[in-house]
Every structure is written in C-alpha cells, then in structure tokens.
Amino acid sequence: MHIYKVGGAVRDRLLGRPVSDIDWLVVGATVEQMQALGYRPVGADFPVFIHPRSGEEYALARTERKSGRGYGGFTFHASPDVTLEEDLIRRDLTINAMAEDDDGTLYDPYHGKEDLERRLLRHVSPAFAEDPLRVLRVARFAARYAPLGFKVADETLALMRQISASGELQALTAERSWKEIERALMEPQPQVFFEVLRACDALQALLPELEDSPHALAGLEQAAQHDQPLHVRWACLLRELQPATIKAVSQRFKAPRDCQELAILVGECLSQCNQALELPSTALLELLQKFDVYRRPQRFDDFISACEMDARARQGSLAYPQADYLRGAAAAARAVDVKPLVQAGLTGQALGESLKGERLKALTAYKSAAEG
Binding site: residue ranges? Predict the structure, then answer.
C-alpha cells in the first residue's frame, strides 16, 4: 500500500499558494484492508474512506470508463492493480495530475510542473472530452489563476469546443452547473470564466442571454475588484437583462434565493438608482418601500453596491454620489419614530398611512438639505 498527496494540494504548494484541502490517494489497497485499518467508507460511486483520526478523505486508485451522458455517466473500477499513473491520467488538467509521497518526492508523469511554469491549463488525455463538467472546471481554473498569467491551451480549448458542439453540456444538472458558476463568481477574475465559456462556444449553450449583454462582464469584474459577495456579483452579471429574463435564468440554475431576489430588484430598479438625485420625494419613498429598508436594510445596501459597480463599469468613474445619497435617504426614513403615532391611538391602515406621511416629510426635508 502506498499513500500519495494528489491534485490541488500539490499544485498550490508548487505555486506557493495556501493549501487548504488535501486529497489523498491510496495505491495497492483493497476495501477490506482499508476497513481493517479503521478507515470508514463513504460514498457509493467509488471507494472513498475517512481517516480514523484526521477525518480527511482517502480514495482508492481507480480507472473510469464512459458509460452514459453527462457528468455522472461513468463507470469506476478500483483495484489494488490500478497504478498511480493510471489514476492520474483520468484527471482533467496536467497541473492537477501530480502526486507527492511522504518524503516529498514529486510524481509528475504528465508534465504538470512544466505546465505550471508555462502558465498553461492543458488536458491530460483525450478522455477529457468525455466529461462535460470539465468545460466549466477549466473555465473556473482560468478565472482563479488569471492573475498569475495562466491561459487555456489551444488544444484543450479545441476539446472544449468539441464538448459544446456535442450537446453534452445540456446533460449537466442545474445543481452541478450552479456549483461551478457559484465558485467561479467568487474567483479573483470571475469575468474570465465567462470569457473562456464564450471562446469555446459553451456560453451559447449555458447562458445565451449574456451574448447580447455587452457590459455584463465589466460589471462583474468591478464587483470582484471591490470584493462584493456572491449575490451582488450575480446581480451585476445579469443586470442588463429584463427582470423576467433574470428570473428565468436564476431559476434555471436554481440559484439561491438571495441571489435571485437581488438580481431581479437590480434589473427592475437600476435606472431609479442612477437617477436618485433627481427623484421626487414620493418616488424615493416608493423605492425604499419596495426594498423594505426598515426590516431589510442590508438588501438595499447590496442593491446600491450593485448599481455602483454598474456605473464604474460603464463610466470608469470613481464618483457615484447616488450611493451616499440613497443610504442617507434610507437612514432618514428609518429614523421616523412610530411610537408617537401609536400613542395617538392610530392602528391598522390609519397607522400605516400616517407613518408613510411622516416618512415622506422626512425624505422631503432630507432632499431639501442635500440640495441646499
């Protein structure tokens, strides 16, 4: 039995990047031997075990064979006879197909270290084309390592185009596609993910709505540069689409509720945010009411952030006075005290109308002070 550290942990150590998760590979062992040593089996598709003390995952060396459509269309074979090289060759990229033993000796049969030095994302074998999910994974790695100068190899991009043309991308489940999109959105240069998808014709298959959205990636790039959270980045990506289309795209990928909600609101109200300084007090109040700034202040703040990223993408300007103006308006409306109205005996609809009137007065005073 031989145990190796494989994949991302080896790659990132060689790049001098922090190593978080470690994948372990066991060569020359049986399921029974692993269990006898105290490893707990998990998963039904292929033999993966939990270390009895560290809790880390250890997988038996395996080969795979294409047996159906999509990401899950594979038959796995794990055996003590499977070699390290046979296991590594089934991986996606050469930079992910390296291993280290306990002594730190590097095993690199497919020249991953050389591709790290060349800043190249290159597939290990032609079997790469059998897994449609790899199109999204390679695009995500491109987004992660773009700051280091990494590019997708021409021959790998050609295989990605082959996958796109095959129709296999449509076999991916919404959950699996979203998982890759979500991770890509949080990479340092998420716009590169979509640029690579466009370059290999996968964007037309997965997100054709973005093909006619010229500023989408620039807004997303700004959101990443300003360290915005996931739901703001998703809203920035889709902000040029019609609200109904934004809803349809978000539901198609089963995006989380906060992502769907904010993206739709940005699509509906972006122009109002941009015109905030000219809005009459009544329209300003309606905007605040729509966002329920009294109970959900963070959602309105995230909306403003997304609109600011849009302005930076379009104008390249560092100044967006609408942001502070709207935040101040929200604070003025929230500062209105409901207690005097309750103490005056108002209830129900009468209380609601009076509270709305007081908030309108507060916004009128705020607007006057801001203009003066």
Answer: 8, 11, 21, 23, 91, 137, 140
